[in-house]
C-alpha cells in the first residue's frame, strides 16, 4: 500500500477521532502531529496487515498527551452528543422512541474497559481487530466487552426510560 492511498483512506477518520476528543482550536495541530509521527514510522508500518491500528494508537496517544500537557490531573476524554448518536441504541421493545434517553449518563456508568471498547468500535468506527490491538486484548475479548456493555446499557435506567429515577424532563 502506498502512503498517499493510506492517507486518503484514513485522513477523515483520524480528523474526526481527534475532533471528538479535543477543543476545536487544537484539532489541526494534533492532526498534523499524529500524521507526522505516523509518517516517520511508515516504512515499518507499511508491512503490517493492518496499519490502521498503529495509526489509531498514535492518534490516541497524541490526544492523551495533549490533555496531560494541559492539566496535572487525569482528564477523561469527553464525548459529544453527535458522537454518541453513532452508537446503536439497545432500546427495549416496550420503550417509546421519544422516551428521554441520557446516553452520556449510561455510557459513563460502564466499566472503563467496556466504555473504551464501545467508543473505539461504534464512535471511532474501528474494526474489532484494530480495537483488540489498541486495547492489548484478543478479538474475542473485544466481542465479550462489547456484548457486556450492550447488555448493561439495555438495563440502564438512562436508556430504559426510567426518566423519573433520572430526574429527566417530563
Task: List its salient traits.
globular; 11 helices; Arc Repressor Mutant, subunit A; 170 residues; mainly alpha; Rna Polymerase Sigma Factor, Chain: A; 2 domains
- pLDDT averaged residue by residue: 79
CATH overall fold name of the largest domain: Arc Repressor Mutant, subunit A
Helix and strand content put the structural class at: mainly alpha
Number of helices: 11
Domains, number: 2
CATH class division of the largest domain: Mainly Alpha
What series of H and E elements makes up the topology? HHHHHHHHHHH
The CATH architecture classification of the largest domain is Orthogonal Bundle
Rg over alpha carbons: 18 Å
How many distinct beta strands? 0
Poorly predicted runs of 5 or more residues: 163-170
C-alpha termini separation = 54 Å
Largest beta-sheet details: none
Structural summary, described in words:
The chain is mostly helical and 170 residues long. The protein has 2 domains: 3-70, Orthogonal Bundle (Rna Polymerase Sigma Factor, Chain: A); 81-166, Arc Repressor Mutant, subunit A (Orthogonal Bundle), CATH 1.10.10. 64% of the residues lie in helices and 0% in strands. It is built from 11 helices and no strands. It has helices spanning 3-19, 27-40, 42-45, 52-70, 81-84, 103-108, 112-123, 128-135, 139-155, 157-160, 163-166. The longest helix is centred in the middle third of the chain and has 19 residues, at 52-70. The chain is globular, with a radius of gyration of 18 Å. The chain starts with a helix and ends with a helix. Residues 163-170 have low confidence and may be disordered.
Amino acid at each position: 500500500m502506498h502512503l498517499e492511498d493510506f492517507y486518503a483512506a484514513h485522513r477523515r477518520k483520524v480528523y474526526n477521532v481527534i475532533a471528538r476528543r479535543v477543543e476545536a482550536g487544537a484539532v489541526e495541530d494534533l492532526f498534523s502531529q499524529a500524521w507526522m509521527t505516523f509518517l516517520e514510522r511508515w516504512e515499518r508500518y507499511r508491512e503490517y496487515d493492518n496499519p490502521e491500528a498503529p495509526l489509531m494508537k498514535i492518534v490516541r496517544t497524541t490526544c492523551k498527551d495533549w490533555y496531560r500537557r494541559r492539566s496535572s490531573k487525569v482528564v477523561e476524554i469527553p464525548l459529544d452528543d453527535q458522537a454518541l448518536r453513532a452508537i446503536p441504541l439497545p432500546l427495549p421493545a416496550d420503550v417509546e422512541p421519544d422516551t428521554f434517553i441520557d446516553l452520556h449518563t449510561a455510557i459513563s456508568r460502564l466499566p472503563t474497559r467496556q466504555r473504551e471498547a464501545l467508543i473505539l468500535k461504534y464512535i471511532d468506527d474501528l474494526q474489532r481487530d484494530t480495537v483488540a490491538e489498541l486495547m492489548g486484548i484478543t478479538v474475542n475479548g473485544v466481542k465479550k466487552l462489547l456484548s457486556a456493555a450492550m447488555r448493561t446499557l439495555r438495563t440502564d435506567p438512562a436508556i430504559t426510560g426510567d426518566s423519573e429515577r433520572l430526574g429527566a424532563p417530563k
